[in-house]
Amino acid sequence: MSYVISGDCCSDASCVAVCPMNCIHPSPGEPGFGTTDGLFIDPRTCIDCGACADICPVDAAKPADRASAVDVQLNTAYYAERPALDGLDLDSWEPPNFDRWSDGPRRVAVVGTGPAGMYTTREFLQRSTAEVTLFDRLPVVGGLARYGVAPDHPVTKQIVKTFERIAAHPRVRWRPNTEVNVAELEGRYDAVVHASGSFESRRLGIPGEEAALTAAEVVAWYNGRPGARAVALRGPRVIVVGNGNVALDLARLMTADDRRLAGLDLPAQVRESLAGVTEVVLVGRRGPDVAAYTASAFREVEHSLGIVFRHHVTPAAWDHRGLTTLDGETIAADSLITAIGFTGRPIPGLPFDEVRGVVPNVRGAVVGRPGHFVTGWIKRGAQGGIGVNKACARETVRTVLTADVPQPA
Questions:
Q1: Does residue 89 lie within any of the structural domains?
Q2: How far apart are alpha carbons 346 and 374 in whole angstroms?
Q3: How far apart are CA 240 and CA 185, in angstroms?
Q4: How many distinct helices (H) and strands (E) make up the chain?
Q5: Residue 302, domain extent
């Protein structure tokens, strides 16, 4: 089901910038912007990701089944005679006003093919004549869009098809199953953009935590990511420490009924393990007023049976009895999953901020390493959904195109 923008639209266009499918129009610069009755979401290309709802300052973007019939009708009517757009008109390139990169083609390496890397590639294709080589240790493009989105959100995963089209462009060379390092890329490219993401789960730092599961390994397991290890998820009660979107995804999936699980693309062993969970306790160290989950993620679980929210609870230890809290309470459970966020992994040869889990950079340019750039979570920290990477990638590419980058020998 697509999202709809209601009559309360303020037309500030924040939603346009984060929409991963370029399906909100008229956008700034297009005919009708500022004169129509707000903005409209194309139901033909919307992937139901909720990015527009999460950023809308006036709560005007909402699922179609929660909007008025009039708003749904107006939204559909706007696109009745307009062709579907996905922002992939990559061959209608017009030279940008960037003198340094006006003569081409230039050679660019993008390391990592998740949303950050693929949006970066699209920006290069649309804004320059650059030839892009994509590297990824996995056999397919998509990253967390393919292996991080919950399996009960198959529509959101459709954006992977867009990324596959980018990888198939004539000016793109795709190198799957390939790990590269900074040293071997030196001198071969005009610019190297690192889009390695942040896949390391942050730790609680409590006794017994080594026996618990992390969100990163559970998500990789139920999404079938190549190389993911099997997870021993035991029920019927599971504690999830964390109040972000990933924590809510885990809780929603583990408490899904048999009929919903049966309709998902899940390995039999995963489906069997999830079916053995009947209750999930979501533990938050802070209150609900500062919870990290988005409104759209909360709407999916607010009426779910089997999910219990516990706020202002600080974990102190984990063992066979359950989770012991700082005030001495023991919450009995069969499994513990930590979902308190992710952090980046150092890239050998580049500086690294251990506290923030990012590569130090200025608008994407790596500090102290000319010719190297970053985008996505390894640039800004592990926050923001798929669509946020669009604006992040645009900033990095603009930095690359305007930088005084020497030609390789």
A1: no
A2: 12
A3: 41
A4: 14, 21
A5: 205-342
Let me know whether 173 and 274 are in one domain.
no
CB 336 within 8 A of CB 319: no
DSSP codes joined into one string, 324-350: EETTS-EE--SEEEE-S-EE----TTS
Q: How does the average pLDDT of the chain come out, rounded?
A: 88
Instruction: For residue range 327-338, list pLDDT tens digits in order.
Output: 999 999 999 999
Kindly list the strands in the beta sheet with 315-319, ordered across the sheet, starting from the edge strand earlier in the chain: 315-319, 322-325, 330-331
Global pTM reads: 0.85
pLDDT at residue 93 in the model: 45
CATH of the domain at 23: 3.30.70.20
* Same structural domain, 334 and 354: no
Helix H segments across 255-373? 258-262, 268-275, 295-299
Structural domains counted in the chain: 3
**One domain for residues 231 and 258:** yes
User: With bands split at pLDDT 50, 70 and 90, how would you rate the model's confidence at 309?
Assistant: very high
Residue 13: pLDDT over 70: yes
Q: Could you tell me if 41 and 122 lie in one domain?
A: no
Whether 93 is covered by a domain: the verdict is no
